[in-house]
Amino acid sequence: xxxxxxxxxxxxxxxxxxxxxxxxxxxxxxxxxxxxxxxxxxxxxxxxxxxxxxxxxxxxxxxxxxxxxxxxxxxxxxxxxxxxxxxxxxxxxxxxxxxxxxxxxxxxxxxxxxxxxxxxxxxxxxxxxxxxxxxxxxxxxxxxxxxxxxxxxxxxxxxxxxxxxxxxxxxxxxxxxxxxxxxxxxxxxxxxxxxxxxxxxxxxxxxxxxxxxxxxxxxxxxxxxxxxxxxxxxxxxxxxxxxxxxxxxxxxxxxxxxxxxxxxxxxxxxxxxxxxxxxxxxxxxxxxxxxxxxxxxxxxxxxxxxxxxxxxxxxxxxxxxxxxxxxxxxxxxxxxxxxxxxxxxxxxxxxxxxxxxxxxxxxxxxxxxxxxxxxxxxxxxxxxxxxxxxxxxxxxxxxxxxxxxxxxxxxxxxxxxxxxxxxxxxxxxxxxxxxxxxxxxxxxxxxxxxxxxxxxxxxxxxxxxxxxxxxxxxxxxxxxxxxxxxxxxxxxxxxxxxxxxxxxxxxxxxxxxxxxxxxxxxxxxxxxxxxxxxxxxxxxxxxxxxxxxxxxxxxxxxxxxxxxxxxxxxxxxxxxxxxxxxxxxxxxxxxxxxxxxxxxxxxxxxxxxxxxxxxxxxxxxxxxxxxxxxxxxxxxxxxxxxxxxxxxxxxxxxxxxxxxxxxxxxxxxxxxxxxxxxxxxxxxxxxxxxxxxxxxxxxxxxxxxxxxxxxxxxxxxxxxxxxxxxxxxxxxxxxxxxxxxxxxxxxxxxxxxxxxxxxxxxxxxxxxxxxxxxxxxxxxxxxxxxxxxxxxxxxxxxxxxxxxxxxxxxxxxxxxxxxxxxxxxxxxxxxxxxxxxxxxxxxxx
Length: 845
Known about the structure:
By secondary structure, this protein is an alpha/beta fold.
C-alpha cells in the first residue's frame, strides 16, 4: 500500500491578506468588508458605506499578527474602462499597504451570485492592475450569511462555467466563510491553514511588491489630492463673488425653472423627487421616463418647476438614440416658458465617465444651442459612491470629468440619493442655481418658440400617423380573421424560426423568451451588456413545449457601421439550412431603444435578397426592449422613427409584435405564436428554398397551380371585399394611448382555395370563407388593442378592463391548442410551466 504524502504544515507568525472582489447589479452585497471584520474578530471596516479607498487594519488573531487590506469593489458586469480611475489607483495601492507584500489575495464571491460568462473578462481586466502571478496567491472565498453545505456549493460551481474557470486559475483553492457566524473561529483557523499551505506550495514566497511602483502610486494619489484642494478653493472663491452680487441687492427669481437631462440609470428621476421633496416622477420602472414630465413644489421658500426628460443610454451616440427620445429631449426645454433658469446635466458616480460616456453627453447636448452650457450645472448623483473621497478628487482623476466641469463653467453639485431627507444638499443646489443666474447675462436659457411649435406640430403629425397605422393594422387583422377564420388551426408538431437583427438588438433575449429557457445568454443583464460578446456564427437551440418542438436559430448581427455583409449573408443562409426543411418565420429583431436607420434597412434587404421577394411573406418585425415604450403604443415609435422603419414594416405586410425583457411575463410570448401560425396558414406552410431554386420546368408546373399574378389578384379581391365590409360598419378608432392584451386567437386560412400547399399539407378549414355578417358578430368586434398585426404585447401595454364575456366560448380552447395542457399561463401570476422541469428559473431582467 502506497504511503500518502502529507504536505508539511508550518505556522506563519504574520499573515498579510488583501480582499478583492466585485459588486453585482442585482443588489447582492460584496461581503468584502464583513469578511475582513470576521477574520480580524473585530468590527474595523465600515459595512454600511462603500469602500472607496483601500483601508488597512491589523489584529493579533490565533497567535498570528494578521494584516487585512480592504479594497474598492468593481462592478462584476463592467469592463475595466467603466471602473473609475480613482478606484483603479486605490486597488493598485492595496498591495503597498501591507509591505513587503501580501501572502494571499482573497477573491470574495457571495454564494448564490449569478456568475455569468461576462464576469470572466471583467475579473481578468481588473487583476491586470496587479503584476503577474496574482492567481498563484489567490484563494476563492465563498462568503455566505447562512450555513452552506458542500453539495450546495458544488451545485453553484457546476452551474457557472466562468466560476469553474476562476477556480482552475487559482489551483482549485477555495474556502467557505459564514460572515454571520463570527463566533465560529474554526473557519478562521481553517482559512489561515489554507493560506499557509498555499504559501508552502509557493516555496514560502509571498506576492512581492516593487517599492518604485508603490512610490509612484502614492505620488499619484498625493498629486490628485493637491489638485482637488486647489479646485475646491477656486470653486468657493467663484461662489463667494457671485453670492456677493446677490447680497448686494440683485434679487434672484422667486420661481425657478429647472430642466433635467442625462443618461438612463443616472438616477435622474430620483434626483428630481429629492429636489421637489415629493414623489413627482416614477422611479419604479426600468424605463422611468418616456415622455417629458413636469413637477411643481415649494422648497426653501422658492417656487420650483422641474422638467424631467427621457434618458439616453450612457454609451449611445446621438445617432444611436431613437427619434422619439431625441424629440422628447428637445421638447423638454419648451415646457417651462420662456425657458429654464438652469439645465441640470445628471451624471451618476457609480461608473467611470469614460470616453463613450463623454461622447454621448457631448453629442446629446449638441441638440441645443451653444448657449445651453452657460446655464448648465452638472448634478452628480449617487454621491454615496464617493465614500471618504471628495468630488474634487474624483474630478481630478478622470479626463472626461475635467472636460465636463470645465465645459459647464466649473459648476457642479453632488446629490446623495440614499439620504433624501438631507434638505441641506437641496438648499445648497438652489443657491448654486441662483449664483449661476446672477453671473449670466441672460436670466434664463432662451428657447425658440417657433421651433417649439414645429416640434409640437411634428409630434401631432406622428400621433395622427400612429392612429392611421393602428387603424389599418386592426382592419387588416379583422380581414385575416374573416379570410382564415374557423375552428381549425395549423396542426404543427414543429415550429422553426430564424432571428435576424443588428448587434445588441436583443436577439438572444428574444430567443430565450420564445424557448422559455436561458440558452442564448443571461436574461437578467442590462441591455447594453446582454449582447456584448455577440456571436460570429449562427446558433441553434430548441425546446419541446407542450408537444410542440420549437427551434430558434440566431444569426450573427451586423455592426452599425458595417458596410460589407458578404460573410453575414453566408451565415444567414446557413441559419436557414439549420432549420430544414425551412423556417416558418423570419423574425426581424428591432430594438425600440435604438434608432433604426437606412443602413439597418439596407442590411436587412441585402441579407434577405438571396431568398427572393417571396421571403417577405414569411417575415415579422419583432420589436424588443418593449419596456422602453412604457405606456406608449408601438405605432408611435413606428410613426416617429422614420421612413426606413415604416418601409420595413410595410415589406413585412404589417406583421409585427413587441417583447419586453421581463422573463416572467409570458402572455406576450404566447401572443406571438398566433401571429406566426396565421402567417404559416396564409403562406400555406413554411418558407422553402424551392421558391428561388426550382428549375424552369418546375416553375412552369408551379405556375399552373398558382401564378404570382393570380395570388396577388385573389388577395386584392379579398382584401377589397373586407375593406368595403369594414367601411360599412363605420367603427371608431380606439384611443391610441389605451392598450390591452391581445384576446384574439384566430388563424388565417388559404388564399388559394383548395390548391395544395408547398409543404404538401392542408392547414386550413373547408369553412374558411365564413359569412361576413357572422364574422363581424364574433371575431370582428371593435378592437380594444393597439395592433401589430393584432396587438402590442400584453406586458408593454397598459392593461385596461377588457370584457372577455363577449368572446366566443371556444376562445380559451383555441388558446390551449397553441400549447396543450403542459403549458399553463396566467397573466396575473405570469407563470409558465413546461415539460423541462429540471430547469431552475431564477433570472429576471
